[in-house]
Structure formats: structure tokens, C-alpha cells
Automatic annotation (TrEMBL):
GO terms for biological process, alphabetical: methylation
SUPFAM superfamilies: S-adenosyl-L-methionine-dependent methyltransferases
Source species, domain of life: Bacteria
Region Disordered, annotated ranges: 1-21
Stretches assigned to the Methyltransferase domain: 68-158
Lineage: Bacteria, Bacillati, Actinomycetota, Actinomycetes, Kitasatosporales
Alphabetical UniProt keywords: Methyltransferase, Transferase
Protein name as catalogued: Class I SAM-dependent methyltransferase
């Protein structure tokens, strides 16, 4: 605003006021629990070796040095793992508190605040995109818009990895670690997710389901889909 100008006579609104309620609720939830979440799930090497193998395989599919976005990166543990596999990867997340941890834990990597509904990326600018349990707070009716946005930013031949918990009913988490917040964690089936990805213009490459890892406290099986944007022959 120029010096001496008069501000408009309107009530100020938060910067995120026009975003959907579920987006604002997700941001508030993870802003509140960021430090506890990061401490609890700090070490990717403690996770399932099958999950690490799948991420490593995805990195090999995409190719060393390829531009990749980890969308819904949280504290950045998957982002860091993919960087260690030679990808030119950056993280995107709604929660500034999560991003602060990601930057602290991965000082050589880039992390930006943003929404999967409107990524600040040019059309076809990525060779890979990872959505590691980041669509699980999105209402089913909004998933086509998310997958269309993923498709927009991926170049021909680019790969998408989507991970989510299997099931039919959402699980509501209330007051995690004592924080006064709550959020729905939506479970999905691989078949309808694969159909939505194909409708968005992807070709399915791999569909993987593993049983729940009870040592990690998982209550349900986990699903992982890898899809590819057609249009360029793989080397």
C-alpha cells in the first residue's frame, strides 16, 4: 500500500479464508501436532523395508537427477529419502509448522507451503510426484480435481506414486498427543483410486497391497499405486 493511502473499509480476513474447510482443518491439525508427529515418525528406516524398497524403485523409475515433488511432505522424511536416491526433489505441504521441521531436518533441500489443489508448478515440469498418505484427508468428491492437478504438472513419461490406508470407513483422530484438534483419516480401496487415476489421464503401472504392520501400530492394510503419464517411451 502506498504511503498515505487509506485502507479499504472492509473486515480483514485470514489469508486462507477462501480455502475449503477440510483444507483449513488439515492445516490446523498438523500445525498443532507437528513436533509430536515428527518425533514419533522420525526415522524412515524404522518403517517397513517394503515401503523403502517401493520408494527406491520409484526413484529408479523416475531417473537420477529428475525433478520430483513430494506433495504433502510433512516433516520431510520421504523427501530426504528420495534425495538420497539421487532425485532433484522438493517438498510441498500445507502446514508451516511441518515445513519448519522439514527445513530443520533437511537443510539442503527446498520446502514450500502449498496446496495439492493448486500447485505452484508449470505444466509438465515434473518427472515424478509422490503423494505419500497426503490425499487421505481429501473428501472423495474432490479427489478427481487433485489427480487432475497431479497430471497437469507431470511431463509425458512422468510417474506418480500414491500411498494410502485401505478400508471403507474413515477414522477420526481426536486430541492426538493431547492437542485440542481432530481430523478424519479417510481409507480407500485400490480399485476406485486406480479408476480415478485413469480418468485423470494416467496409465497404471503397479498396484501393491501389503498387510498391516502391527509393530508400527497399523490397523489396516496399506495400498500403493504407481501410475505413468503416457506419451513418451521409457528408456
Amino acid at each position: 500500500m502506498a504511503a498515505g493511502s487509506v485502507p479499504p473499509m472492509t473486515t480483514s480476513r485470514p489469508a486462507h479464508a477462501d480455502q475449503p474447510e477440510h483444507v483449513r482443518a488439515t492445516r490446523a491439525f498438523y500445525d498443532a501436532i507437528a513436533e509430536d508427529y515428527a518425533e514419533t515418525f522420525r526415522d524412515l528406516s524404522a518403517a517397513s523395508p517394503l515401503d523403502r524398497a517401493l520408494l527406491a524403485g520409484f526413484a529408479e523409475l523416475v531417473g537420477e537427477g529428475a525433478p520430483v515433488a513430494d506433495v504433502g511432505c510433512g516433516p520431510g522424511r520421504v523427501t530426504g529419502f528420495l534425495a538420497s536416491r539421487g532425485l532433484d526433489v522438493h517438498g510441498v505441504d500445507l502446514s508451516e509448522s511441518m515445513l519448519a521441521i522439514a527445513r530443520r531436518e533437511n537443510p539442503g533441500l527446498r520446502f514450500e507451503q502449498g496446496s495439492m489443489f493448486a500447485l505452484d508448478l508449470s505444466d509438465g515440469s515434473l518427472a515424478g510426484l509422490v503423494s505419500w498418505y497426503s490425499t487421505i484427508h481429501t473428501p472423495p468428491e474432490d479427489l478427481p480435481a487433485v489427480y487432475a492437478e497431479f497430471r497437469r504438472v507431470l511431463a509425458p513419461g512422468g510417474h506418480l506414486l500414491v500411498a494410502f490406508q485401505m478400508g471403507d470407513e474413515p477414522r477420526r483422530h481426536v486430541r492426538p498427543w493431547g492437542h485440542p484438534v481432530a481430523l478424519d483419516f479417510r481409507r480407500m480401496r485400490p480399485e476406485p483410486v486406480a479408476e480415478l487415476l485413469e480418468e485423470a489421464g494416467f496409465a497404471l503401472v503397479q498396484r501393491t497391497v501389503r498387510e498391516a504392520d502391527t509393530r508400527q501400530g497399523e490397523p489396516t492394510p496399506q495400498a500403493f499405486l504407481i501410475a505413468r503419464v503416457p506419451g513418451e517411451e521409457q528408456a
